[in-house]
């Protein structure tokens, strides 16, 4: 957010130092002076110089980052760019770029780490103690440099350090839903980063800092524009602009992708059709690919949304998704480009069960896609809800590489103001067992390509990045960007461990502060599920902007309304996806299907997603469904209040500006959690006819009050000032 830095400083509780005001721009790459004197002394003894052999843009980026980081952490420059190893040197490079590294017996270890992996090792060379940061390629050395800095930022040991790491997923992408007018669809952090009217002549410094942040967590690709594509992106003017951005991202190991509009042969090429089997259409896309690669030799490829939410696609010509994707594949194949075809197929007709559509359309096409096509599947079968079961497509397409698609922009989770750490959601989804090849066939292993031997693997997230000074609309939204990158690198990473890293790099290494903030983060996702959509409820948000409750909405296309999903009546609520309903459970492998289909084994967390339940039926807790609903909504509000108290306890360790912003946002979250609870329970009570037990807070207003609250729909950040 664009705020003036506070002039005042805040004394740390110990009185040992002062905290300067911060605006969040530095993200987790703050590199603040280490104030633990003994630790700083040990670090300075271990690291006294820097050697980077080689002069590629990526190695220069590694040298610059290490120089910047060490100066910030140590409070002084370190000697740089010697040609021989000295005591205390950090030596960065590859066997090809560095004579020092090539002379070490590391070849076998490095080979096992692949193109992007790295090795960090304390070794002795000619009696000199040094730390080697090595990769097979320059980008591996860059990733290793960030990892070494992270080790020091989090106060890890350098004594006898020995770390190796390589990504388990090949393509780790941010998808920007940015428009050419610099608005951002479902964006809550300001305008788009991409200054199209200034490019290619003027390059914003933010592009380089954006690339640095991504490289520091292993993100290696970005789709720059909205999947609701604008055909102008494929014109020569914009291709030149994209080439300029690509030039800034390239040294940091990032490739750019573009959203392609299926109707471009008509819109740009003057053809009368965009039929993917038409020879002239194929020729158009081949020429366009040649044009793009001439300007951007390492262009990643196309991201395509087709025949969904009004977007044109192959079905307009009675062709399949595979035939449409394969047309792009043929155009990109000579350049080793990739087609990422989204499985979000929300078509023009209301379906009996919307959540079944992606599986029904794509499962029959398994094996029909060309080798440079992947299908990108949302984490759940609906649409980025606070909680959904994992998509049944994972594990169901053994012949077609599947990319995971998450969302960190929190479209349905309070957007910029509510503190919701999504690392917990990523972990829940990635560790879910599909049983595709028996027990242990987790979603993570599916997208890694270890359940089925996918030729290419990938993961993407809808980005939350914008022009707000803090990049993401709030300080804690940064944690979700960070967690995505770290868990895309290693999908089996623990979300709590990732949170620990982020806190230490972003706020403090004080164990009490770390523990306090980590607790806030780790309870936050369950809190929002409880005060918004407990017990497997989904999509009961207000229509359009998805900000605030609207379970009473029935107007419009049925499967765009909350009522379609909760189906509350005098008998109960929930969507029956068992054999007596739409049989959506049948899309899962038998072990999962049977668990979800049975009332005895279905988790309460997704109960109403799969079952209709009577208001007075007993749940696993021993409470009736109505009482459990009341309990969960109140538990969500109570959790936010606990988060507020936890944040207040760390005030002395956080700079005043960031502390104040988070505190004010938590106040909004508490108020809106009550709004959610009171509005939803008041509405469902009209069907249950049951009282809210006296031990709980009663709604502050009648239902009609909540039904008349209106949030602005013409702004990226809805604000509902009438909320009590």
Name the CATH architecture of the largest domain: Alpha-Beta Barrel
Which structural category fits the helices and strands? alpha/beta
Mean pLDDT score = 94
Query: How far apart lie the N and C ends?
Result: 25 Å
Quickly describe the structure.
The protein is α/β, with parallel strands linked by helices. The chain has 22 helices and 18 strands.
Could you explain how this protein is built, in words?
- This protein has 724 residues and is of the alpha/beta class.
- It has 3 domains: 31-165, Chitobiase, domain 2 (2-Layer Sandwich); 171-506, TIM Barrel; 529-575 and 612-707, Alpha-glucuronidase, C-terminal domain (Alpha-d-glucuronidase, C-terminal Domain, Alpha-Beta Complex), CATH 3.90.1330.10.
- It has helices spanning 37-46, 57-74, 99-102, 107-111, 138-153, 205-216, 236-249, 264-267, 279-295, 321-332, 357-362, 423-430, 443-448, 477-489, 495-506, 511-532, 562-566, 590-597, 607-610, 625-649, 656-688, 703-707, and strands spanning 10-11, 18-19, 49-52, 79-80, 89-94, 118-125, 128-135, 162-165, 171-175, 221-223, 255-259, 301-304, 338-342, 373-378, 402-407, 458-462, 572-573, 613-614.
- It has an 8-stranded parallel beta barrel with strand order 9-10-11-12-13-14-15-16.
- Helix 2 links the parallel strand 3 (49-52) and strand 4.
- Helix 16 (511-532) runs antiparallel to helix 20 (625-649).
- The chain is globular.
- The two termini are 25 Å apart.
